Amino acid sequence: MFEFRIVAECPHTGARAGEFTTPHGVIRTPVFMPVGTLATVKAMSPRELEEINAQIILGNTYHLYLRPGPEILTEAGGLHEFMNWDKPILTDSGGFQVFSLAKLQKITDEHVVCRSHIDGSQLMMSPEWSMKMQGVLGSDIAMCFDQCVEFPTTRKKAEEAVRRTTLWAKRSREYFMSHNDTERQALFGIVQGSVYDDLRLRSAQEITALDFPGYAIGGLSVGESHEAMYHSLDVLSEVMPREKPRYLMGVGYPLNLVEGIARGIDMFDCVLPTRNGRNATVFTSEGRMNMRGAGYAHDFGPLDAECDCYTCRNFSRSYLRHLAMSGEILGARLFSWHNLRFTIRIAEQAREAIIAGRFPEFVREFTEKFHDDNAQA
Amino acid sequence: MFEFRIVAECPHTGARAGEFTTPHGVIRTPVFMPVGTLATVKAMSPRELEEINAQIILGNTYHLYLRPGPEILTEAGGLHEFMNWDKPILTDSGGFQVFSLAKLQKITDEHVVCRSHIDGSQLMMSPEWSMKMQGVLGSDIAMCFDQCVEFPTTRKKAEEAVRRTTLWAKRSREYFMSHNDTERQALFGIVQGSVYDDLRLRSAQEITALDFPGYAIGGLSVGESHEAMYHSLDVLSEVMPREKPRYLMGVGYPLNLVEGIARGIDMFDCVLPTRNGRNATVFTSEGRMNMRGAGYAHDFGPLDAECDCYTCRNFSRSYLRHLAMSGEILGARLFSWHNLRFTIRIAEQAREAIIAGRFPEFVREFTEKFHDDNAQA
Question: How far is the C-alpha of A278 from the C-alpha of A338, rounded, in Å?
């Protein structure tokens, strides 16, 4: 269980194709993981997720702690049962939401005190709290409770977060090993350090020294430039263990996905495909499109002629624009559906290219075709 | 084409099972028709509609005239092509929206002038306008342009609407026969008359004298009591031609459906299943439930143990309540899905019972089990 096997490597880049074994099935990497914050990947049904070949989805520990809460999730027998999803699930630790969503009140080495973004009630979060809740959720992959810092930040704050992330990783691991079901759940470490190379290296060394079955890179895709992100990945690729899966948190923008894979990343997650989808913004092999554009009113071609998803095989741009303009739920569905399938397919195509020994060609073809005037957005 | 064949009749009630042949397939009656106002049955995909055995859906001429408009619908080749639905479609005439939604400015025998509920722009609607637009839509069944009155209304206003509805039915028929594709589209007449028996009879006589391939009863389910509705149906059952399909407009409440079938109605439509679904209200074999109720938080049984729909076969009430409380799109989807399947299944079960000669037992069992404290709502 939780074995990571490298199937093929690109001789020209850091890209690799692998298989990670979990209690709910084997994950073929590189892989994009749709985000199912509140026990649902927004606008999608579980069987649609299977249809687009979602191999693993995310759950958010902070959100699920607030709604429906640990009591109901325990009664349900965990998140898989609750939401009717029998493939792998990864849960985050709740650490990220402390900084992005909840009202932070106090942070010490001991714990974090914040207020719920739903009803303002007080929460006390800690490594132990997170491991316990992730145990209730019963995810295949749990994440260490970490401290993420905003971008830009000072070196001092970034260094403090690295120190605390290591401290909390130790406490996460300790609690997890003695309380969680280690046969059914793996705990991944998280590397922080903002855009400071030496802090990234220090964090990677401290976290990998704790020997986790997989490692995530946190604190990227929070506002830094694409170049800064790629540079950090380059720095880390030297020190992240080759034999363990590497997970770049919060990344799902198509070009970042391709560049991340080229730098040895195996796993990605992001709300971008579904959030953009609900806003009628789609990604296709040719780039980004906002489907409210008047230019699509008389366009009876498919969204993306190269895509194999339900949306692209059945509906015209004209119809999809009409749904967007009318605020119809079916629009949010069809755009989310396409965006997820498109993003998952990038990882699938990258994997095929790595195995076939033509990954650099794949990257070149993809990036030459994909146009986006808002590439930094 | 457009042949109505009666397959079986209940010897104890007015109920009958039939088959109506259209260019897009045979409709087995009694039938419930989901409403697809803006070229989408809200929250449902076409393939989900096929899965729940929706045999025919509705489109709203007024809404589709405003969005996406006749130009785009013409380019698309009609509504079937535009929305990717290849089974039968019935379009209403736009007359009902004049009174329910648009801001009515002036009504004469010549035409109706009103303002769009979207942008306030002026529209001029008439029998000819409606026939032309329904020709663009290319529905299998078009409806005469009629005048619906609110409830309660005066006898004078109801009589005026009956007179005008007959006048407009003649003009609808005249335009339709010389401009529309009568091989591919049938025009149904509409009987008005509010709750006045003599006006209902007069309207039925005047409309049926025009010889349409099917007849609808309009102006019911607009606020009158269930008993008043049933009484009007009883009065009309004597004079509506037995050999033509009868369509009760705007009715989809489960008990009304069963009682309507017992009074010889063959076709029904209503937004109730989808509108209620988006509001987390569901109908089951036991009655009406609001899924936000705290009592469902720890209920891990299915929504309706007797239902064969995706929602009932895959998710618990606890999970569905969580989706409702969290405002998730998947909740709106799963509730709409179930409500539609439940309503369609009532018509299917009624048909089976009629054919098997046990329709009165079906009615008794259904009404005894179905409980609803808000039965008049």
Answer: 11
